[in-house]
Amino acid sequence: MPPRRIIIDTDPGQDDAVAILLALASPELEVLGITAVAGNVPLALTARNARIVCELAGRADIPVFAGCDRPLERRLVTAEHVHGKTGLDGIALPEPAMELQPAHAVDFIVETLRREPAGTVTLVPIGPLTNIAAAFRTAPDIIPRVAEVVLMGGAYFEVGNITPAAEFNIYVDPEAADAVFRAGVPLVVMPLDVTHRALTSAAWLDALRGLGTRVGAAVASWCDFFERFDKAKYGGEGAPLHDPCTVAYLLRPQLFSGRHVNVVIETQGAFTTGMTVADWWRVSGRPANAHFIGSVDRVGYFSLLTERLARL
Description:
The protein has helices at about 15-25, 45-55, 80-85, 105-115, 130-140, 170, 175-180, 190-195, 200-210, 215-235, 245-250, 300-310; strands at about 5-10, 30-35, 65, 120-125, 145-150, 185-190, 255-260, 265, 275-280, 290-295. By secondary structure, it is of the alpha/beta class. The chain has a single domain (about 5-310), classed as Ribonucleoside hydrolase-like (Inosine-uridine Nucleoside N-ribohydrolase, Chain A). The strands form two sheets. An eight-stranded mixed sheet has the order 3-2-1-4-5-6-10-7, with helices on both faces. It has a two-stranded antiparallel ribbon with strand order 8-9. The two termini are about 25 Å apart.
């Protein structure tokens, strides 16, 4: 069976970096390109970080494109308080030698979806949805050509992590999220409801260090860094490893369960801007537009991560 062809849209971020590594370590997936967006840190750093991760994986052949440097209609909100000043704080890694591609990320997304056969390219956004929404606005003809969008963002039962009601990726650019959720593409959503069940552990981090590889050491160090923030905030034993849930779903969908429900994005709320209003109990009468994931086999998830990261 040929590998599934994907574009990763990302704002690395330590957990974004782990998601990229998982994809690059998995022969079931062909990463056509990585598109950077402003989010966890500004665009110059997310584009830098994506290249650092590719080189860490020994995959300098992966094209990396810089995209939108701000949300569609709002000022940029970043998350250095979680990810550090560089977005990849935790371990010293060399500056990337590979260059950014000259094309804009939105143009790459549009051109790829127009070039490849319809239904063969999956989009994997793990940051704010600005690049994806901009591509859909620029070229609505690509929307029916998308195989699926598997994204990390939103929350329902877990409510918010940047405001009381909103998850960070959606909150940064709610207008972009609204456009993507209304586009009619097949959507799989990894919200905080599932990622907060995907908690790291001391034993898992020890196993990564025990690999004796640069990748194992880097991932353990990244997790050590952002664990401090999440442990203090949530009071748990570990920290949620959010973004790799998207790639793990592509590899092992049986690890996850959820419901096909209607999800709308709040863009006007006085206190709820960026909220993903998921009709989990199907009471609105609105048609379902997203497979909203609610649970994960944590043991299977971390076993998959360990096995794949060990290949790099």
